[in-house]
Write a structure and sequence with these properties.
This protein is α+β, with helices and mostly antiparallel strands. It is 18% helix and 37% strand. The chain has 2 domains: 33 residues; 171 residues, Jelly Rolls (Sandwich).
């Protein structure tokens, strides 16, 4: 009998402990929900521009080729030593064109230069991150940006990083979007190379491009 009473008391104490934990979590969640924009950021799930070749999580298309397009090569299914998954992006720029630069916009919908209704509402994201490396370790990405497409259906904002000096190993890079208006972004990702930064051309690799 005493043993049963002890077990009953133990069960009651454990139940009180679990309820207290659940109540604590609930209060914390409610406080977070009262935060407005903070709630969006805390609940925002990774939104990929590129996760893996043909991944259903991918968004945007690399359709906005610019500059010396004939001097830029793109392989989205390069399978040797990706940062994560089965593939990564390989880009080669040979720096021989007259314009002396080349780049690509990942767009939504395809070939959208602001003349088509589209884009995504990415409100809640606070940054864009991507992993990159160079084939030799001295390559330079002249510019990476999000947004910036103008026109009838222009992007709601623009943000960028410039003159990114790569190494021969995978490294994570971040564009701060904490103060950006991401309510309509058709230009999900843009990368540019120049002859000035890469006089002999360059080969670079990208992977895991996503909004967080």
């Amino acid at each position: 009998m005493k043993g049963n009473i002890k077990n009953l008391l133990l069960i009651i104490l454990l139940s009180c402990f679990v309820c207290a934990c659940v109540s604590s979590k609930t209060v914390k969640t409610d406080a977070d929900n009262a935060g407005g924009s903070e709630t969006s950021a805390s609940s925002f799930e990774p939104f990929y521009v590129y996760e893996d070749f043909m991944s259903p999580k991918n968004h945007y298309a690399p359709s906005g080729w610019m500059g010396d397009v004939a001097n830029l090569e793109l392989d989205q299914s390069y399978s040797q030593e990706p940062h994560d998954g089965k593939s990564c992006i390989k880009m080669r720029y040979n720096a021989e064109g007259l314009k002396q630069w080349a780049g690509i916009y990942w767009q939504h919908p395809v070939n959208n230069w602001g003349d088509k209704k589209g884009g995504y509402n990415l409100t809640g994201a606070t940054k864009l991150t991507f992993w990159a490396k160079g084939a030799n370790g001295y390559e330079v990405i002249s510019e990476v940006k999000i947004g910036g497409i103008s026109g009838q259906f222009s992007d709601s904002d623009v943000a960028w990083l410039k003159v990114i000096k790569l190494t021969g190993s995978w490294k994570k890079y971040t564009i701060d979007l904490s103060k950006s208006d991401l309510s309509s972004i058709s230009g999900g990702f843009c990368i540019v190379f120049s002859k000035k930064d890469n006089p002999k051309g360059c080969t670079v690799f990208l992977d895991d491009i996503r909004y967080e």
